[in-house]
Amino acid sequence: MKKIKAIIIGSQVFMFLLFYSSCTKKDLNQVPISSISTASYWKTQADGNGGLYGMYSLFRTQAAHNHFIFGELRSEIFGPSPFGTAGYEQYFNNTMNSSNVTPSYGGNITTWQNLYTVINHANLLLKYVPNISYALDADKKRTIAQAYAMRAFVYYMMVRTWGDLVIHTEPIEKVDASLQKERSPKEEVFKLIKADIEAAISNFPDNTIATGRNTWSLPGVNALKADVYLWTGKLMGGGAADFNIALNACNAVATADVVLLPDFASIFNYENKGNKEVIMASRLHHLESVTNIYQYMTLSPNTPFATLDEESKTALAGLGGLTYLAPTTAVTSQFSSDDQRTAASFVNVYTITSAGVRNFHVTTPVKFRGAPGYGSFDDIVLYRYADVLLMRAEAKNALGQDPSSDINMVRQRAYKSNFSSHVFVNGTQAQNDAIILQERLFELIFEGKRWWDLIRFKQAFNIVPSLKTQQNATHLLLWPISLSTLSIEPKVQQNPGY
Fold first, then answer.
1. Whole-angstrom Cα distance, residue 409 to residue 236?
2. 3-class SS at 165?
3. pTM of the full predicted structure?
């Protein structure tokens, strides 16, 4: 068995994994069993490779739950199901506080401590890899680029969730008073994110995407760059300068080996992982110990809790679990029957009585079916080409340009032979923004994007039912900091309003 070390350091519970040279990117399921000091590690290219995939392993655990919880669960998409809420109701009801911020079911930890473990591992790579000799300098630079990219993405994930953050750019390798730090303003966090993006871009030796598309690449970082600059352009005063940067980043992605797959459902087919629409994903496989949030969103056709009709059983074939997080009718009713994304994203499930009466039971997502017969083991897609096209449309519209071509590329794939009935025609900026926001809902539902989209388009308080009566409670756009975090971070103060 390959050896791996888990080191728990200090009150912030920073953990990093060190792999021996036989570790591979596909073998991330390891257990902490031995002790290795940093003095004996970080000596060879194999050590650098092991550390790199250790970083991805740590991130995968976070992506499997928190990417979705932070990015979608507080939106209007979900509500309770007949099976309950699995302890997630405080999110879609927007009733979080410092005590209930972590769900009561499933053992997931929605705090920032474990996200900082990923950052700490990126910091270890950035400290030690420059001093390691690599057979090819391009491989060394690619490793450094991926560490910068990961640190930028995780800080971006965190700053949108909590606002001001504690900034660490050096690895924590010993316990001392320096561990305790105050939060830095979000403006400083974004400066770091943008600097890391540029450092990643300058280090990637080429524009390729590795097989599997589950590691950071230059196209992946450009997708992240577009995302970041749209956020700061709209919400932090960046304006036209930031929108132009976002637009250029989207254009750069379009030069890479990316396409829109003709069949929407095939993007998420378990047997089609790493297809050319995917730009960056976190890889999950059946028989690995890491499960993901989708296990609480899908329904087994053989559920013992209801008698399903045959049509529903057919639609749910291959799925497992129970739908604790059910899409709301207010959202699903916006999808049209001639849009191939509808049937590929969710199904309405019906029960059948002994008298043959068919009754609506629940809506369940089917976008991420996972391994046939098991479910819940799909990759967590962070960026794909359709997302980038809609970001490019958003940037163009913000600059007063016509976004029609990008919107229509996405719609043409969605409606196929019925596209002529759904051609987008350029309107006012406000009209276009409303269409782009809705198109992102249709295209990216269940992909951990909706909450961020609502904030970026300044529509959260207009669209989310639980927020419509709280227009002045803008503190709800951020998360509370958990009591567990506050108890070990004496210099960290709670977000205002909580």
1. 30
2. strand
3. 0.92
